[in-house]
Amino acid sequence: MSKRQLTGKIISDKMQKTVVVEVESVKEHPIYKKQYKMHKSFKAHVSEGEYKVGDTVVIEECPPISKDKKWQVIGKMNEKGQEIQEEGNK
């Protein structure tokens, strides 16, 4: 079974070795069929502090690192949506 990967934007980088990534998804109301956006925040592990607020990154599930950290950053995306940098796996 493969690990889940999500794409989101970094909203906080104030912690050491941790960034907060906000992932946006589009849902549809079951009756009215209107689409709306949902946002969820995930704490993700980074080994270096090279990621800044506003960067679009790809995160992947991993074994729990702490109480809240169950994701790790595996790469950064450019404006065109292509992965430009890959982080080494643990």
Describe this structure in words.
The protein has 90 residues and is mainly β. The chain has a single domain, classed as OB fold (Dihydrolipoamide Acetyltransferase, E2P) (Beta Barrel). The protein has strands at residues 5-15, 18-28, 35-45, 56-61, 71-77, 83-86. The protein has a five-stranded mixed beta barrel with strand order 1-2-3-5-4. The model has no long low-confidence stretch (mean pLDDT 91).
Topology:
Layout: E1 5-15, E2 18-28, E3 35-45, E4 56-61, E5 71-77, E6 83-86
Parallel strand pairs: 3-5
Antiparallel strand pairs: 1-2, 1-4, 2-3, 4-5, 5-6
Keywords:
90 residues, mainly beta, five-stranded mixed barrel
Quick summary:
The chain is an all-beta fold and 90 residues long.
Number of helices: 0
Mean pLDDT across all amino acids: 91
Listing every helix as H and every strand as E from the N terminus to the C terminus, the arrangement reads EEEEEE
* Range of helix content: under 10%
CATH fold name = OB fold (Dihydrolipoamide Acetyltransferase, E2P)
Strand order within the widest beta sheet: 1-2-3-5-4
